[in-house]
Structures are given as structure tokens and as C-alpha cells.
Amino acid sequence: MRLLKKPVFNELNHAIIDYPTPSNITYFWNFGVLAGLCLVIQLITGILLAMHYTPHVDLAFLSVEHIMRDVNYGWLLRYVHANGASMFFIVVYIHIFRGLYYGSYNRPRRAIWNIGVIILLLMMATAFMGYVLPWGQMSFWGATVITNLFSAIPVVGEQIVYWLWGGFSVDNATLNRFFSLHYLMPFTIAGCAGLHLIVLHLSGSNNPLGVWSSRDRVPFTPYFYVKDLYGVIIFGIFFSFFVYFSPNMLGHPDNYIEANPLVTPAHIVPEWYFLPFYAILRSIPDKLGGVVAMVLAIFVLSIFSFIAGNEIRSSQFRPIYRKLFWLLLVDSIILGWIGGKTPEYPYIQIGQLATVYYFAYFLVFIPLLSKFESAIYKRHASTYIQQYK
């Protein structure tokens, strides 16, 4: 009992057990915990896989086969790690769309939202470098295509590409650099996730109504601990289905062919969680413009939080916003579908239309709608105050 009175344990008790949580939050608030669980799974399996992996162009593909065939439960480690990346992105994408739907990007949670955008960027960089490590055909050619995008940067672009490669082509130096960074960056993500959680506890959790109340709150344990545990069990069943019954569904078959610089695959595509951004890249006819649009497609999430603030947070009280949100969700799915198609008619034209709506949603529609709704809110609020003075 004396230990529990120490400052460290007091903080842990406040953060895990007595943390005041809005009583009306739903199962959509489970995805923050699930994202943390995915990160822990990726860290543990990644460390164990690194014990058997060899970052050399002549041995990388064979070392992965060695893990699959010779290491005890190596197949399980590899499938959990590979599918765990997809599970991580599924959870984070749902987490982002939940935040958009319930206005979690608004004050006072703007800092939480922007730290989340940084985590998303780090996840994408980590996943891209991890995809190169098996050194299959799609790994090699995906690395070649994506790193070449930096050459679109004026003046210094070509030098940046050579620096990333460690030479004049994707080769052994590239693989070593990517392996080193892929091992390091998950710990950076863990640090950002810890900061994300600290800032969340300072400003408090959002809720479906988008209103703040110091009264209608209950301790996190046992009420929401049980709710999160239920979500973890359902997620574990979903995750296990892919690992045990369809481990290669979310991957590309060409990556089971060893990398060959002399044979180009018929259709080079990234992993599914990059496809919407890949579609945006290809929808712009100019190379530099496409790269800028692809990068802006991520940073617009941060810009959006500064220009679309609203006193009314939850979409439950914003019927026009709600319709635009569901159109954004459909639009994002269309972009993902287009990203996996060959760049030809009519896919390019569909991708361009979907790209226009994506940026218009964040930079035009919602900021203008927020100003319109805020003006109505203030007018009604002032009328209400005058009536009851």
C-alpha cells in the first residue's frame, strides 16, 4: 500500500484506473487501445524476426525462407508481423475516420490530432521500408519507383535519391539502410504514441455528443477496461483469421519471387494501405505535382484541424457535415480501388475526380460549412441568452 502512494504509482493509477472517462463513449473508442496493441505486437515480432534476418541482397530472400521453413514457429512470427502491419493500418484508419466523424480534430484536442498525423507519417515510412526487406520482386521494384519520386524535387532531388540508395541504384547499401531504419522507427512511433496518450489525458477524451462535462464521467477501470477487453477479443479473432487461414490475402504474389533487376513486373503496386495515396500521385499528370499532391494528402489532415474549427463538434448535430463525411469515406475507398488498377482510361479520370473531392472536402467544403454553422450557432446562442436574462 505504501508503494501506491508514491508519485509514479499515483500517476499510473490516475491514467489507467481512476482516469475519468465520459460515460457515453462507444466501442469506436476501442481503436486507440487496439492501435497500441498492434504496435506492441509489431515490436515483439519484429525483434524476434531480426534475430534470423540477414540484410544482404544475396541472402535476404533466403533468410526469409529460412525463417518460414527452419525456425521454430518462424512461419507464425512472419505471418503475424506481415499481417500485423495491415491490421495496424486498418485500426488507425478507422481511428482517424472516427475522429473526423465526431470532431476530435477541434479544440481542445488539436494537439492530440496533430501528433496522430505525425504517427501516421512514421507508420507509412516504417511500413514502406519493411516491405523492401523480404527482397522479392515487388519489394525491389516498389523501392525503385517510390525512391525515384524524390528526383522530382528541383535541384537537390537527384542527390537525395542517391543518398537514399547509398549508391546509384537500389542495392545492398539501400537494403542495409532500410533495415536499420525499419528497426529504429517503431520505437520512435512508441514515443509519439506515449506523448499522444499524455496529451489526451491532459485534455480529456471526446465523446459521441462532442460536449464536455465534468459530472457525467466514470472511472476507466472497471467500466471501460471491460469494454476494451471485449474489443481486443473480437480483434484477436479477426486477426487470427488472416494469420491462420488466409495469410497472403493482403500481400502480393510477386513478392514470393526473388528480386531481379532485369525483370520488371507487369504492374507495380504498393501495399493496399498506400493505394489511395498512390492513386492521388498518379492522378496528377506532372511528376512533381503528383508527389506534392501525395504528400499534401497526408498533411491536409493537419492543416484541416486549424481551418475547420467549430463549436459544434459531433456530426450528430451537423446533418450536412454527416453527408459530406460519408461521401469522403466512399471517395477514399474509390481511391484505394483506383490505386490498384492500371493507369489507363477510365481509371485515371475516376481517380482525378476522387482526388478533387478529397482535397475539396478538407480545404473547401468543411471550412466553409464550419463558418456557416458557427454563425448560426452564435446567432441562436445570443437569442437564447437574451430571452432568459
Automatic annotation (TrEMBL):
It holds the Pfam family Cytochrom_B_C. Heme b b562 binds at residues 81, 182. A ubiquinone binds at residue 201. One of its GO terms (molecular function) is oxidoreductase activity. InterPro entries: Cyt_b/b6_C, Cyt_b/b6_C_sf, Cyt_b/b6_N, Cytb/b6-like_sf, Cytochrome_b, Cytochrome_b_C_euk/bac, Cytochrome_b_N_euk/bac, Di-haem_cyt_TM. The keyword Ubl conjugation does not apply. GO terms for cellular component: mitochondrial inner membrane; respiratory chain complex III. Binds 2 heme groups non-covalently. Keywords: Electron transport, Heme, Iron, Membrane, Metal-binding, Mitochondrion, Mitochondrion inner membrane, Respiratory chain, Transmembrane, Transmembrane helix, Transport. Its main location: mitochondrion. Component of the ubiquinol-cytochrome c reductase complex (complex III or cytochrome b-c1 complex) that is part of the mitochondrial respiratory chain. The b-c1 complex mediates electron transfer from ubiquinol to cytochrome c. Contributes to the generation of a proton gradient across the mitochondrial membrane that is then used for ATP synthesis. This is Cytochrome b. It comes from Tsukubamonas globosa.
